[in-house]
Amino acid sequence: MSSNDHLCGCHGSMQSCVSIVPIFNHLQPPQMETIMKAVRTRTFKKGESIYRAGDFSDTLYIVHKGKIKTYRLAESGKEYLVSVLHPGDFSGEYALFSESIHESYAETLEPSEICTIQRKDLQGILEKYPEVALKILGEFSRKLEQSEKQTAYFATERVESRIALYLADLQRQQGERLVKLPMSRKDLAAHLGTTPETVSRKLADLESGGYIRQHSPKKLEILDLDGLLA
Amino acid sequence: MSSNDHLCGCHGSMQSCVSIVPIFNHLQPPQMETIMKAVRTRTFKKGESIYRAGDFSDTLYIVHKGKIKTYRLAESGKEYLVSVLHPGDFSGEYALFSESIHESYAETLEPSEICTIQRKDLQGILEKYPEVALKILGEFSRKLEQSEKQTAYFATERVESRIALYLADLQRQQGERLVKLPMSRKDLAAHLGTTPETVSRKLADLESGGYIRQHSPKKLEILDLDGLLA
DNA sequence: CGCGATATTGAGTGCACTCAACTGCAGTGG
DNA sequence: CCACTGCAGTTGAGTGCACTCAATATCGCG
Hints:
Two copies of one chain form a homodimer.
Chain A: H1 14-19, H2 29-38, E1 39-44, E2 49-51, E3 59-65, E4 68-73, E5 79-85, E6 90-91, H3 93-97, E7 105-108, E8 112-118, H4 119-128, H5 130-156, H6 159-174, E9 178-180, H7 185-192, H8 196-208, E10 212-216, E11 219-222, H9 225-228
Antiparallel strand pairs in A: 1-8, 2-7, 3-6, 3-8, 4-5, 4-7, 9-11, 10-11
The structure holds a DNA duplex.
């Protein structure tokens, strides 16, 4: 509940970086303090690359401020946008426990602050605080479930349903009828396995069907959630 | 290396169940012994259900003998086959750390023996042997990477490429030019997000292109791996 | 206000789907 | 031993969804 912003004057903004992440924020202040010593903060401009496929991977990245996207590139050059990460989300996990070469790219969508922890420091933390490993396991299983569900959508649903399901998810996350899309049509298309043109068309169809209303390209109103999902 | 089959006469075949799983097989015999006490073995006929979507989930399932598939059903009734599990693979992980209701189905493809561990027993094991948690983290990150890659294929590749990539993966796993498909056309289609008819056609195309040779429906020979992937 | 980027709309094409018929093979029983 | 049955797989014909390429409209920002 209470965020002791003044506890650690010397480290300043780095503290909140650790305290906002689900995998750490359950720890006691002294334990957090230990972890904060291993954390480094880096700032990025909009559109900057954080890591690239082929890069050696030995770092966990935690979004502190701003917004980043992770994506993969097919041989053909076609992009699949894996996820958009907001403050408190983290990335780079895979390589921390098995592979050590990135297969995906990460870049900022806005000016951002990213906190980093080196693999060896994290492993020290896991040994010292085994409950962190359990938290990460929980987080992983959530991501795995999500990824599997996403794959199932691709395998079983047509584009219009995928868009509808995406909007419904967004609605559930944000909890308001007015939903804010976190990305452009191009990125949305790359996330849903389609093209910007088709996204435009399907959104227009959903609007004329009375399921949604487009206030601006990134602000949609969900009018009929149940109808949307049918 | 040495499998002490006679160490534990009273439990018989249950021992190997623990000793073949990557997440446990690094442990010392006395530690394995402890885990084996928590393990129960169940036998299934071909095509039997192990768990279903909506079931309460508090069990980890480890394949000992046989072969099982996990799949999801869309509202439409269309099936997405998530994975085929062979001896040593496990399933049911997600719910052990976060959700507690299955979203997928599991059923045997052959007569099988499945070992089960209850959630609370597993949690005890994780507390006692933290290195098991690290093994599971590694296994999770591998699965996550795999699932993400699979989703990327759906988002960026056409059906023929997805089939080719699947065959290439199989070839890599099995290490032989003669590749054995672990499932029927119908299941393969459900795994690749297409239909049995299209699988037939595309395999025929790959054959007439000289990339593969079909000896029988489930036995393929990879003739030109590089060509296959282009 | 003007420019470039982003989004929408339009026309035409092709990949993969559906529905249907046919083939091949394994198991069963006359 | 061979016809019979049923399932798995293949092949064929026709259709439609979503793609590509192109033109136009709109937004955001200096």
